[in-house]
Design a protein that fits this description.
By secondary structure, this protein is an alpha/beta fold. The chain is built from six helices and six strands; from the N terminus they run H-E-H-E-H-E-H-E-H-E-E-H. The protein has a single domain, classed as Glutaredoxin (3-Layer(aba) Sandwich). Helix 4 links the parallel strand 3 and strand 4.
Length: about 160
């Protein structure tokens, strides 16, 4: 019986590990180039945290948009502001439970006052916040989105390409 239990635990661990998303932990200096790419892709960079209720509420809309526009020059980057010591205990289980497939990084740079203005000078620091940009435009939103709102923005930007 002990052997069966051990095997079950091993397979459960293996399945969770295989399905777990790799989370890179970056300082802002490493993230910053990702906020200024100059090519034919439209980028949605969303700043969020798993403990933020409005962030969690908008996540399905972001994922649905990412799936709908996967065949276009469109890329989603989810920048988690969760605590680095909670990646395994909180962030990865959240991503798995929510079936998040977009690229996720964790921003571990506690000196918010130095980098918030570099994302957008009008950002108060509240989340969720999204930067939607392309070669010829740069829009910042300090709000949560419904699916319809986000689709309208992304669709119009893709039509402009």
């Amino acid at each position: 019986m002990k052997r069966k239990t051990s095997l079950l635990i091993f397979f459960f661990f293996l399945l969770n590990t295989l399905g777990a998303q790799q989370i890179d932990v970056l300082k802002f200096s490493e993230l910053e180039p990702m906020l200024h790419k100059q090519n034919d892709t439209i980028y949605l960079v969303n700043f969020w945290a798993s403990w933020c209720v409005p962030c969690v509420k908008e996540m399905p809309a972001i994922e649905k948009i990412a799936e709908e526009y996967k065949d276009f020059n469109f890329s989603v980057l989810l920048v988690s502001l969760d605590f680095p010591n909670q990646i395994e205990s909180r962030l990865k289980p959240f991503l798995s439970k929510q079936n998040i497939r977009s690229k996720v990084i964790l921003l571990d740079d506690p000196d918010f006052n130095k980098w918030i203005d570099k994302v957008n000078p009008n950002w108060s620091g509240a989340i969720p916040a999204s930067l939607i940009y392309g070669k010829d435009f740069r829009d910042f939103y300090e709000q949560s989105f419904s699916y319809e709102e986000l689709k309208s923005i992304i669709h119009s930007k893709i039509q402009e390409l």
